[in-house]
Amino acid sequence: MAIPGNLLSSTTEAVDPNTSGWTAKLNCTISLGSGGRNGDGCLTVRSVAAGEMQARTVSSYAVTPGVVYEAFADTSGTVAERIGIRWLTATGAEISVTWSLTTAAASAAWHRVSVAGAAPVGAARAQVLLSSTPAAGAVPHFWENVYLGYARHTTGNLLTANSETSEVDASGWGVETNATLGRTVPAITWAVDAYQVGGHMLTVTAVANGNVAILGTERPVVTPGIEYLAYTYLSPPTAAITTWIELRFYDAGGTQLSATRGSLAAPSTGYFRQRVSAVAPAGAASCAVAAGMDSATTGQVMRLDNTVVTVAPKARAGSITTYEASSLEQGVGGWSITSGAATVARSTPWGAYAVDGNYSLTISSATATTSTLRSARFPLTPGAGLNWRAEWASQVTAGGWTATRGVRWYDAANNSISLDATTSATVPTSGWWMLTTDVVAPANATQAAIEWTLTATSTSSVLRMDVASLWPALPLAVTAANPDTASVTLTLRELTVSYLLTVYRIGQDGARTLVRGPSGLFDKATIGSDLMVIEDYEAPLGVPVTYAVEIYTAAGVLSNTRSAGPVTIDAGDPNEAWLKDPGQPQRNLKVLVERAPDWSRPIQQSAYQVKGRRNAVVLSGLRGGLEGDLSVWTRDDDERAALHWLLDTGDVLLWQAAPGMGVADMYVNVGSVDEARVSGYAPELWRTWKLPLTQADMPTATGVGGSAGRTWQDVLSSFATGTDVLAAYETGEDLLLDQRRG
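RE: above sequence
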């Protein structure tokens, strides 16, 4: 799989199918190895003699002085290693090398090494260096999955890349209590596509016995009333010690308003992602992340990596439950037993019971009696008269349970109005089950709480709950036509994340065509969110279409189907037609047609005049598709610039005309373009264009260009000033798609 944003070629990155992207630099030979993770191939670097050996990329890659770049690789060997970025002048002279720390210990298992640093003054090119120092000749070291590019940063993170990963240095953090800060590179096996973790990790060492705390130096801006989520990988020195992450909010003057802590229930001394969430209080202007250990012993070391602060996600789009109450990552999330003998607690240890995150709510009853479980109250947005759906995952891990599932409604004065509940039913056993109930909010309802009446059917019964959500129940699949963009918006709700999705557009003739998504056609594409908004810019004009949706389990088994439509895009003025770029719909343009093409269909033929025969023998290939010249007008300078912009890429385009104009929708390649004035009058704005069209196949691998989840916060987290942004991007489109100057 290609690493997003990699400056290296796929062959250099994955060392497949050969080693042509690499060369020996010092005391080594290179060869193609096997057993890699990013494809089978890997780079084998073998020492010639004892001492340091180095390999480097054959090519060098353009860089900009002052910009931070990162290199990482997965590696395996019998000695510790390091990775470096070699900075070169425009003529190829070495300026300096930014090296990572050497791995703390050698490991034969694949593990990540990485480094980041700003390109120095005078740097124009860069290479990746791979280094290890065996004590003898003929010692092999293995490398693959190599990256060189801009510093990795989690989309949506309010913190900068260095505060997230500490790949440059430890300056994103400061000591608050009883600690020293450092960095190390432990040999940890991460997933091959876990690009935000690995390499340098922040180390927090206790100076003396007692509590230890560090605090992030950055103060990203927050909005009061919004729930934020912070998380990091924590590695405790022992499984018994309490390590934690904390989310703090500050007012405009820097005074701390609140602090919410999520403590790790560590099952061992490995690396575990711990989360904490909180709603920014009134008056909050900024936030910070803290981390630490309780009751540490002198010299004990905690490590952390991949620290992120972001707006808290929702398990279901539109859900009014908080992340704290839904995912149970830092405690019981406001859930309580309002009557009965049952008790509630967060599950333990980390990772034992969870659907989302790493914890769940544990309800225990020592006796076979009835108890009432209720969440905190959540404001309805809006409320009265709407149909609401409550959903939660449940797992019986001991005994048995029956449950009456419901929602309790409250007015603005916090008075209970009513409880809408289902009839009592047995909670399914053996695995996690998603349970739902639908209710209508009564008049005057402004708040709601999820409420279960639970009856343990035997002593010592235990029930787990996770991902509790409450949201307005809307259609599962709905379409809307957008005549201004000649597109259809298909909205799909309540999808299962990690399942697979196939989407067809069905025409009047019943023919099915796969709809395009961000990574190509939606043909068993992985679902990344429970809500998907698909914009179909290739739907035909002026005729009704419907959509068929197939949802498969992660194993590829059909789970359910949906349908939506019919929907019709208004074709508009029949004298106008659309020219569209399937992969970059922001370039699509409606043009005024001067003359439709007169078509020809070329064919490759060879004629042979055989002696003694009257008629030649003609050998023919398959007749080609349509070719012809489309003549269009642009009516002002904006249209003229827009047509140039559309044609600049040279991509396959989709030509669409209104029904009844004698042409069907057609994918085309556009040849050399002629732009002419319509008169000799110099200020005349109109131009006539001749566009030579050659019929093409529908591009199947092309995805709709975009940068999923990218917001202005990501720009703020990546650039110190507006001048830096202007220097990095040539156009607003490049900024949107995060395509920096090469």
